């Protein structure tokens, strides 16, 4: 192996960026848990359930409105940045903003119409929370594509810290200020409004950081041809299917619980999701860093280097996930009660079930992301569509019988099946093993 490849895989920017991303993601998880504690304390279980449901709706709509652009932008900008084709990057960026704004407008309008139809069937507090959630959608979309562009330019710190560090701090400050000004417990809709304010501030910061990081030079390859927009649209559409279906799978449990059980149980389950998020800490941190490198190595057809990077990535994320899961097995109840309070006791059982799915995801190093970064997003979308239907059916069957425990089981089983199928397909189409061994 050439010396530059050794540095590339071992002692160069990947290690430093991965360590940085891990630290930032760890801080983000802790800060998010801290914000969750404050919300749970200030809102109570019922109002927290209203907040959680509205936020899940906003998150789901934002994923649809992104139209697969974040991962698509990261991959394409990484490829074009390596070639020095700034003209293509600039044209791609303008096109991406246009598409994001158009789909955000469509999603918000259609959802607003649906909300108007069902307005009288939901509690007043839930209605207002959902309206504010719709306003939040375009803000989340524009922030997501700016973070993705920064990752494609290998600006890991700039792409991560606004959302991961500053936003929880802002949210905490806003919650504290609102509590002291109102001198009472907050309502779910008020918490969504504060979330909207913090998200808008982060969007402004990300826009500024991207402007400062944008290539200012004009290399000789500036005159390279710009990719056909129809090709961009086709690729983004496939990425959109992957992102949308994946998010449906991820949000189905909360949404169906919101429709089938009491808000108190939704609040308990939301706490469990936050706890289970700790298990995927290493995965998310690694993806921020290795995604662009997967795209670069695949474009170079460097199978040996790609296999080495995929295997090391899988070993790291699975080891960390297993260790975190063990902590919840031993001390889950104590952790939940100490942090969230006795009202949320029992959420640790849901964490353990959800954690099994996260362990399967970590073992295969989220092979769906690897396949998308190497140009096989159409294959991923087909598998995820099957898993989505399977997950919806499981939730419909298990939630009425077992409540949140059934939702957790449905999510974990679906996640395991998804990764097993995609791993076998990845070996077939790329020859790469994304598992640790």
What key phrases describe this protein's structure?
437 residues; mainly alpha; 15 helices; 85% helix; 0% strand; disordered N terminus
Question: Can you give a write-up of this model?
Answer:
This protein is mainly alpha-helical. The protein has one domain. The chain is built from 15 helices and no strands. The N terminus is likely disordered.
Structure described in brief:
The protein has 437 residues and is mainly alpha-helical.
Instruction: Report the biggest beta sheet as strand number plus sense, adding barrel if it closes.
Output: none
User: Kindly, what is the distance between the CA atoms of the first and last residues, rounded to a whole number of angstroms?
Assistant: 21 Å
Helix coverage percent: over 70%
Percent of residues in β-strands: under 5%
Structural class: mainly alpha
Count of structural domains? 1
Principal-axes shape call: globular
Query: Count the helices. How many?
Result: 15
Number of strands: 0
Unreliable stretches:
1-12, 218-224
Element pattern in H and E: HHHHHHHHHHHHHHH
Write the layout of secondary structure elements.
Elements lengths: L2 H9 L1 H54 L2 H15 L2 H32 L6 H29 L3 H27 L5 H26 L15 H32 L2 H15 L3 H19 L3 H38 L6 H17 L3 H7 L3 H26 L1 H27 L7
């Amino acid at each position: 192996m050439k010396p530059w490849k050794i540095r590339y895989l071992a002692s160069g920017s990947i290690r430093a960026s991965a360590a940085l991303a891990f630290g930032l993601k760890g801080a983000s998880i802790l800060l998010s848990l801290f914000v969750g504690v404050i919300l749970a304390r200030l809102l109570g279980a019922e109002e927290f359930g209203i907040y959680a449901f509205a936020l899940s709706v906003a998150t789901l709509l934002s994923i649809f409105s992104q139209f697969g652009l974040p991962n698509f932008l990261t991959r394409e900008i990484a490829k074009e940045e390596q070639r020095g084709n700034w003209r293509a990057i600039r044209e791609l960026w303008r096109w991406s903003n246009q598409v994001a704004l158009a789909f955000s407008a469509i999603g918000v309008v259609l959802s607003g119409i649906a909300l108007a139809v069902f307005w009288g069937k939901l509690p007043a507090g839930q209605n207002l929370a959902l309206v504010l959630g719709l306003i939040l959608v375009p803000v989340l979309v524009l922030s997501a594509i700016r973070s993705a562009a920064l990752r494609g330019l290998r600006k890991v710190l700039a792409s991560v810290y606004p959302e991961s560090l500053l936003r929880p701090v802002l949210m905490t400050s806003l919650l504290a200020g609102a509590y002291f000004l109102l001198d009472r417990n907050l309502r779910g809709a008020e918490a969504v409004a504060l979330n909207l304010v913090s998200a808008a501030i982060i969007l402004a910061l990300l826009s500024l950081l991207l402007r400062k990081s944008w290539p200012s030079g004009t290399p000789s390859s500036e005159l390279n041809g710009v990719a056909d927009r129809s090709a961009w649209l086709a690729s983004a559409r496939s990425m959109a299917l992957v992102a949308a279906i994946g998010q449906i799978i991820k949000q189905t449990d909360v949404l169906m619980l919101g429709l089938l059980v009491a808000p108190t149980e939704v609040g308990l389950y939301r706490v469990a999701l936050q706890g289970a998020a700790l298990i995927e800490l290493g995965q998310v941190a690694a993806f921020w860093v290795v995604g662009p490198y997967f795209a670069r190595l695949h474009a170079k057809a460097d199978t040996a280097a790609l296999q080495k990077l995929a295997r090391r990535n899988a070993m790291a994320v699975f080891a960390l996930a297993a260790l975190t899961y063990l902590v919840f097995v031993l001390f889950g109840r104590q952790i939940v009660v100490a942090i969230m309070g006795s009202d949320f006791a029992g959420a640790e059982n849901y964490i353990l079930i959800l954690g099994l799915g996260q362990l399967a995801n970590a073992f295969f190093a989220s092979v769906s992301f690897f396949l998308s970064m190497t140009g096989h997003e159409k294959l991923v979308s087909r598998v995820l569509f099957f898993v989505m239907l399977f997950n919806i059916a499981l939730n419909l069957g298990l939630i009425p019988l077992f409540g949140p425990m059934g939702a957790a089981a449905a999510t974990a089983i679906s996640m395991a099946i998804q990764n097993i199928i995609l791993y076998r397909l990845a070996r077939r189409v790329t020859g790469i093993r994304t598992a640790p061994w």
